[in-house]
Fold Phytanoyl-CoA dioxygenase family protein.
Amino acid sequence: MNADQLASYRRDGFVSGLPVFDPSDVTRIRGAIEQLEAHHADGAGGHALNQFFRVNGQLVIPLLADLARTPAILDVVEQVLGPDLLVWSVELFIKEAGSAKTVSWHQDITYWGMGETDDEVTAWVALSDVSVQAGCMRFLPGSHAGGIVPHADTFAPDNLLSRGQEIAHVDETQAVFGPLRPGELSLHHGRCFHASGPNRSSDRRIGLAIRYVTPGVRDGLPGRDYAMLVRGQDRHQGWTPVAGARALFHPADLALYDQVLSDQSATLSAGATGTVDLYQTGGPQ
Ligand SMILES: O=C(O)CCC(=O)C(=O)O
């Protein structure tokens, strides 16, 4: 990231269009994801593959753990968060060609039990052409500068978020699209308002979202949560360390996955007005 891009992240709460993978990498990664879909759609350990794609995929799928350790991504994230980096969750946001799926306006860390930290950032990597037509993300510049605002649960069926949570009042006239070419990433701050529309393109829209945190994020916070050290050192004691998947759907990793989800679910569903389905079994989105 050059100085202007870093300044724009600090000012706006997001920055878009940073190249990290070349076309051959994108083809390989997308191919590996589609191989998983072709051969392991039923998942393992009682969870469909889609569940692992939706949250904490790094715990059971080596590909996702490896992607979170990509030096080119870590170099960018280090500019924002500093030299000690952990990964909280690796996720895939897939909208099939012509899919009506959307993501409502929200702030990521609202239900993540991390308080209002400045030290969580998402690196969102395009593994297809994530154009405006394909339903790229939109961001509200400067919205990270305030605190966490109220969100209302909608549980809307076409919403990719776990509780369809949305911010009541967003001045969309100020929103900025963040289209990405394959292999580019955007960064967004955990309090930056963002959303995305349906995929009106003829290709799948595939985004890899990696949630990075620093060792200090959980200092003084209650409960237990888990993170994978990917660069530097963790001299704090807030995160329970996890290593990342050792083999696809390894039994010990599947057991850990359940443990992590169970510990996280109380936080993620706090105050919800309905059942928050953290164990999605649905098909493509
Ligand atoms: O993929 C999307 O459209 C939304 C992703 C998102 O909300 C996130 O990565 O925080």
Confidence is low (pLDDT under 50) at residues 279-285. Residues 23-40 form the longest helix (18 residues).
